[in-house]
Amino acid sequence: LVHRGWGRAPETLVDLLRRQVPGCASASPVHRLDRGTSGVVLFALGSEAARALGELFRQSRVDKRYIALVRGLAPEEALVDHPIPRRPGGERVPSVTEVRRLASAETTPRHVSLVEARPRTGRVHQVRRHLKHLSHPVIGDANYGKGPLNRALAERYGLTRLALHAASLSFEHPETGQALTLRAAPPPDLVEPLLAMGFDAAALAQDAC
Question: For residues 6 and 33, is the Cβ–Cβ distance under 8 A?
């Protein structure tokens, strides 16, 4: 978990950061990732920075790019404009995600695609729900995916996690105006199964950023 309040966990990302990184005792996350999603998480070191960065997210001035492994042959490009709730059980609000297919593989028991997803808005489970709306759910997704396919790919290729990775965040520094891009390489528990499926994971991850 990124922070407390979204579930029960003996330790959160906030706890790890504050303990391991000098000068981060008061750091707070500006956004969050779904549990099981790897990648970039942005923290602010003070209340003023948190407000400024939070405003960038609210104004959709942060370019967020995800890499996802999905079921089937995804379209080369798609724009998903499908309202979803801000919170579970809440009123549906406008939500938009751009999707681009990076590659596909003829895996068993069925083909899969590696896609880049760029959410223009920030809703709970937005990328996962929009890919499900396209009929290409994220592999390893217990909420929106297909259990038998997830289990088959886990057994054959060793993919035992949610195949969703926050590859990069791009935005202008709120004080200096400098253009920043923060990147995170996919971790081994995602890269190794992708390689086993026949993807050139390192090259594709670089392209997606």
Answer: no
User: Assign residue 135 a region: left if phi > 0, alpha if psi is -120 to 50, beta otherwise?
Assistant: left
Label each residue of 157-190 as H, E or C.
HCCCCCCEEEEEEEEECCCCCCEEEEECCCCHHH
d(CA 185, CA 182): 10
Return the SS3 of 201: helix
Whole-number pLDDT of residue 86: 76
Q: What's the CA dihedral at 185, 49, 19, 161 to 10 degrees? A: -30
For residues 180 and 171, the answer to whether their CB atoms sit within 8 Å is yes
Q: What global pTM score does this model have? A: 0.90
Annotated active-site residue 34? The verdict is: yes
Residue-wise pLDDT for 158-203, tens only, equals: 999 999 999 999 999 988 999 999 999 999 999 999 999 999 855 5
Q: Which of 34, 63, 141, 200 is catalytic?
A: 34
Alpha-helix runs per DSSP H in 21-146: 47-58, 126-133
